Amino acid sequence: MLEVIGAIVYPALYAVLIGVLLGFAPARRSTKLALAAAAALWGVIVVTIAGVGLGAPGPVPIPVLAFAVFFALLFIAWGAGPQFRSALLSVPLPALIAVNVGRLAGILMATSAAQGRVSAPFGPAAGWGDALTGALAIPVAAIAATGSKNRGWVLAWNVLGAADLIDAVTLGALSAPGTPFRVFTEGPGTAVMGAFPWIVVPTMLVPLYLLVHLTIAAKIRSEERAPRAVLPARSAT
Length: 237
Hints:
Elements: H1 2-24, H2 29-51, H3 62-80, H4 82-89, H5 93-98, H6 106-114, H7 122-145, H8 152-174, H9 200-225
């Protein structure tokens, strides 16, 4: 049952993330269509990897490798592409935060861990960490939507959300069966993460959510550093 729900929820979250980021981007229609096609192609590649069994445990965990590839592509584009970076920064802050509400789906991972399909500490940490980030995204997005200059809550939530993803990636890699660097050896580890729909999480969703967190941090920093408008002095009369 969890697999059926995940097969619906995870691809939908990926589509929503791509849709929001492209929808707000001030780019030409042709550019948006090309990027959407590239995102869809990556999804096909990931599902194919799972379908042919390449995500099975081994010395080189393919889901971790696929995560690294997608992560590198996104962050190279951020660092080397000013237009790419500018387009992301044009997305409204409340929207960037609100897309994280989808991380409430972490409950699926936490439930899977409770059923013994995924080992601790990865399963509970990744699942409940995501669920907490998703739940807190609701009030934080509301705070951002008010236009309040007090960004303390937004910054704290952003750090929490990014730390949760980094923690999940680290624990997942250290729990991968068949690898020489596995540290957490009890239970099935993260073997299920190479099968559909779970493979969607590390290879498609996590890199995008990390990019969103980076964009939020950069957006807040740019707003804080923007010079305040100075009213012209009145001439003496």
